[in-house]
Amino acid sequence: MVLSTDFVTGVLEALYAVQLALRDVWHALGLSGAVADQPAWPFAQRLAAERLLLEPGHARRVVITLACVAVAVVLLLFALVLAGLRRPRQPLHARRRRLWRHGLVAGAAALLVFAPWPNKALLWAPAVPTSLHRAPQAFSTQSIAQGQAVFTQHCAQCHGADARGEGPLASQLAQWPPNLAGGLLWKRLEGELFWRVRHGMRDARSGAQTMPGAPALSDQEIWSALDYLQARASGQMLRDMGAWERPVRLPASRLNCRYGGLRSSDSLRGQRLQLVLPSAGEQALPKEDPRWVTVVLGTPPMGAAHAAPECLAEDRALLPALALLLGVAPQEVPGHRLFVDRDGWLRARSVPGQAAWSEDDLICRSESAPAPPAAVAAAADAPPAQGVDGLLRRMDADRMRLVRAGYPH
């Protein structure tokens, strides 16, 4: 049996929801407390979704076992129903019901015995009280700016200014800090990263401290530092690989829109955005287009065709945040243009001096990206979409989903 990525993702979403429900019920019953203003995960282990996502054979065994358990539960429920019914007066009917009841119980037992139970070592992962915590604040320009200040003051001495783990004090630790400028952040749950920053880390064998904790930092400062590290790591991936390997949201910022006045960029979810960062020599803004909302960062060019753009981003923290996400210096940001999809993910980039958009500008794609629009259009005897039309069609068809430690978010 071959399991599709979408099916496995759906199973992981369901398992994640079950664990969240169990955590919340446990907390509501007063059996567990709260940590960082969220219900604590009360167990020493959690389901290891990262292994399910990476190992198809293991995922298949888990799915088959879950199906066997579900059918066994249904059979046992039918058996209980038969046992609770009023006894028939005729002995033959009573015997048949007894046989049915015993058969249902035997079938349920056989399913549980012969189910391909997965290896426990692969099914469970160590957990901490904040394992299922999620950042309570939005991924925003203000959070990134605050996180940069926190990281510079409290973390850079060990992790290095570039977060690669080679700070001036790194050699004094029992173990060199990990490289946080790559994909490591997405291989861990947000809540577990929070716990490591708060309480530090120790070597599993020797017990020696490999990373000191930060008890003096507030919860918000820790979450902000993680937002900053995510933004920096995204820019590093783009610089090294030419693409965002993991989905990146447009940081929430303040906009001044022609229709709606002052508002958050998150309020435009459901619409495509073209983010324009004019360069000094740019004479005109792109023409307005009903297919997207144009958001201009900073002051429009003097010769702009539209004196008042659809939306103007006046948030001064947006430019340095975008510089981190693009992996460039802040002075290199002007001249770029970015497309944001309807779900708020940054998807395409146009570099300074580029004439027009094309599908090649799509720098964030899902692992299960659909067939190119050209192939779909050809199958329908229609001319393939070119330029920005092809880019938009591909962007809409290829929906993004962030995965952390195997769990879809």
Write the layout of secondary structure elements.
Elements: H1 5-28, E1 34-35, E2 38-39, E3 45-47, H2 49-54, H3 56-84, H4 91-114, H5 120-123, E4 124-126, H6 141-154, H7 156-159, H8 190-199, E5 201-202, E6 209-211, H9 219-241, E7 248-249, E8 254-257, E9 261-264, E10 273-276, E11 293-297, E12 311-313, H10 318-326, E13 337-340, E14 345-350, H11 373-379, H12 387-397, E15 403-404, E16 407-408
Parallel strand pairs: 10-11, 11-12
Antiparallel strand pairs: 1-2, 3-4, 5-6, 7-14, 8-9, 8-12, 10-13, 13-14, 15-16
Give an overview of the whole structure:
With 409 residues, the protein is an alpha+beta fold. The chain has three domains: 5-126, no CATH class; 141-241, Orthogonal Bundle (Cytochrome Bc1 Complex, Chain D, domain 2), CATH 1.10.760.10; 248-408, Glutaredoxin, CATH 3.40.30. Helix content is 40%, strand content 12%. An eight-stranded mixed beta sheet has the order 7-14-13-10-11-12-8-9, covered by helices on one side. A two-stranded antiparallel sheet has the order 1-2. Helix 3 (56-84) runs antiparallel to helix 4 and helix 8 (190-199) packs across helix 9 (219-241). The longest helix has 29 residues, at 56-84. The protein is globular. Mean pLDDT is 87; it is low at 368-382.
